[in-house]
Amino acid sequence: MYIKISSFTRWVTSALCLLILFSAHASAQTISLKGKWRFKIDAKDEGVQAKWYSSALPETVNLPGSMAENLKGDDITLKTKWTGSIYDSSYFYHPRLEKYRKPGNLKIPFWLTPAKHYTGAAWYQKDVEIPADWKNQRVILSLEYPHSETRVWIDEVEIGSAFTFVVAQNFELPANLKPGKHTITLLIDNRIKAINVGQDSHSLTDHTQGNWNGVVGKMFLQAGSPFYFEDIQVYPDLKKKSATVKIELKGLASVSSTGKITLSAKSFNTKNSIQVKPVTVPYEIKNGTGTLEINLPMGDKIATWDEFDPALYRLTASLFSKDGKKDQKDIQFGMREFKAVGRSFEINGRPVFLRGTVNNCEFPLTGYPAMDVAAWERIFKISKAHGLNHMRFHSWCPPEAAFIAADLVGFYLQPEGPSWANHGSSIGEGKPIDQFIYDETNRMTKSYGNYASFCMMAYGNEPRGKQVEYLTKFNNYWKAKDSRRLYTGASVGGSWPVIPNNEFMVRAGARGLDWGKQPESFSTYARQIEQFTVPFVAHEMGQYCVFPNFEEMKKYTGVYRAKNFEMFQEDLADHDMADQAKDFLMASGKLQALCYKNEIEKALRTPNYNGFQLLSLNDYPGQGTALVGVLDAFWDEKGYITAKEFKRFSNSTVPLLKVPKFVYTNNESLNASVEVAHFGKAPIPNATILWVIKDASGTVLSKGKFDQKSLPVANCIQIGDIQFGLSAIQKATQLNLEVSIEGTEFANDWNFWVYPAELPKAKSNFYYTEILDDQAKKVLEEGGNVFLNAAGKVVKGKEVVQTFLPVFWNTSWFKMRPPHTLGILCDPKNPALANFPTEGHSDMQWWEIVNKAQTMNLEDFPPGFRPIIQPIDTWFLNRRLALVLEARVGKGKLIVSSANLSPDLKASPAVQQLYFSLQQYMMSENFKPKYEVAFNTVKDIFESPSKIQFNTFTKDSPDELKPKPKTN
């Protein structure tokens, strides 16, 4: 941080002492500053000139806390100047959304809505009593997580300023400060100024934590020895069973000191405590500084740290000066070595596969990060319950509590500099941000570098500017300075230039599902990563959306409200589908889970693939509301997949199945190859792999086991083949194949569908047509039945692009980039689907039917009308859509399909089977459509466009829609 010392105190050292949670100065005394502070907003920047620090401020707030929590700031209006990009401006202009722009009913869709909003200067003030026995001691003011630029006065003397997003801000009080009452005044400014990290950086954007003003962590005054530990860094060496301890000492600039330093360490979370023999060495401080490098033998038996056994030590460093001064500092560290070996990661010499999620600083109750260890332990334990072992922090660095918790839980972290230098900023072009990134990452490593979980680091997210030159130098700087972790220039999309000296790659390009073609489970990402010679981690994998969970709104009891959810819910009701919200959530959620399963499995079966970072396990509340998580923004389950179910395909050990397809006819065989990805604690000797095939009732159709095989720590472990003839299956059937490792929790399963190769021939009693022609109208008028295959003929709804995959990230941020739907909803008990085994949502058998099929917009259909098969629209538009519908028209009955369903015997098996099921339904007594619809209403689907069309009203666009940046 930047400290400017006034002339009053320029003889005092400018050094800062960062106190970590486990620090305790033996002679230190602490005064907490939590509680009531006086307060005043300085919207006109007049406080400094008017010397507000010299008089009592008129209002009060509680600290730690933000202005919004204290209900200070401006009301939210259409003119609120947010920090964050808005690429879909339709909210501000579209007549359909006018009611949400009115005062009293203001509902914004871009992100959560805070109670108050304010960017600018704000003043905080508190009186303190300095004890008489603090004389001749060093006194610091420590503020954890102010946001973000702070100036400090003691009485009427300014003692320093600081600007950082990543560590506590510490200020040294004047050495000649007299005992008694004094006034501390803070001026905190959260505006983007000369140092612009980027308005969408998660360190400050309204998309995530919000650009809040205040102090939210520990706040205290502390007195201690004038000779003290400025910095202690521990460098483990597993081969030598020792640790190198590098120490910086500080004291008064004009004073020298000699004495002894003793280092001792012991494990504190292992079954048996390990005590390290203390080491004592002399020290000397000259002209206020001193350095030491001490070798600390850890003993013959050392406990190493990793995801399975997160053993930790506490190092105690004690300083005893010859004149009786004392100082003590405790450091938490782990004996571990995280490195890249060729194209693989290794932890303590064992291969590791990173199964990660991106943390985007979503804290919907407070709007700022959790500052306590327990909250972070909960997050990491939930992530572990889903089989993950890694977390990236997108363009922000979490507080110290996160590192402490990750150490305890055993979780690998990739914090980043607080920058997404793209929107409104850039790197490598001589701007102040260039030096700020170095300053911030140095602060991060100084404060958190001893934590075992701090395994990786990047500058930040997807920059622009002269990035190759800048980030190459950035990597070289850090590789030379600190070998305890691995470095990559930036976490980037697939179009960003490659930084040649990255120690690992975090980039897109080798992710996603190629479901424009028939789904299978044998392809890999090998071709996409073959150019890289270092470990590869997939950047922001997934991003599959689900429909909003409106029951979540009641959880927003803090400083934020989910006005975006309220808007989507009301709009859904306006489109006559309020009663379907829960069904939309569950059906879209099942498709989302299917996508995550298949993408993660594809990564696990790819040779030389070393990890993924989901975007993300929990929902992202900004950028238009990106509902991409299987968990909500509170890290709670939504109801359609449990942690245990998710962990089956995302774990340290995962059985995998390689098949060319998931839909078969009964004149074929199901031929599958089994392999295992095993990145566990150790090889599994003599593993027995079991398999079983069951039908939907749970009846076992076949089972077997493979010869015992030892599983090394690796992926692509070939187990054997399964062959199962399907001729005994005479009707449409759903099968499930499960593969498990005997005596372990490791199991995985896949659904398959088998249809008769030849369906029964029956003469239809309805009129089949591909045009709603005069003959169809006549048949209906005379009381007959009509099947209309309207594939390719739809006009009303033609703008809706449907693929088997759901919406990516969200349609607002990407300006309605397709696809626009979230899967399908149907009733598996509907007699129309009696011969087409299905659940109420998309699964693999629907791919042949749904992918790229048109949807019909039923905007003019009667209230309450529900189709047989209903595509779920993006929640920004909530169009009432249909893929297959039935209705009474005139005296007759009609089924319309915008999917290409026909009696064509050359159609794919699932298409034939669904058409057969509908055919049988139409010829049965169950064919009794509930709703009556006018012939012209149906006909209008093929004549008139939708009344409401999407318009962003915005020329700018997110990175992915822009031309590829120059490679410098």
From TrEMBL:
Keywords: Glycosidase, Hydrolase, Signal
Gene Ontology terms: biological process: lactose catabolic process
A Pfam family recorded for this sequence: Glyco_hydro_2
EC number: 3.2.1.23
UniProt catalytic activity: Hydrolysis of terminal non-reducing beta-D-galactose residues in beta-D-galactosides
Signal peptide: 1-28
GO function term, MF aspect, one: beta-galactosidase activity
Ranges for domain Glycosyl hydrolases family 2 sugar binding: 32-215
Record's GO cellular component terms: beta-galactosidase complex
Domain Glycoside hydrolase family 2 immunoglobulin-like beta-sandwich: 228-336
Coiled coil: none
Top-level enzyme category: hydrolase
Keyword hit for Signal: yes
UniProt keyword Hydrolase, yes or no: yes
Family membership noted in the UniProt record: Belongs to the glycosyl hydrolase 2 family.
Protein known as: beta-galactosidase
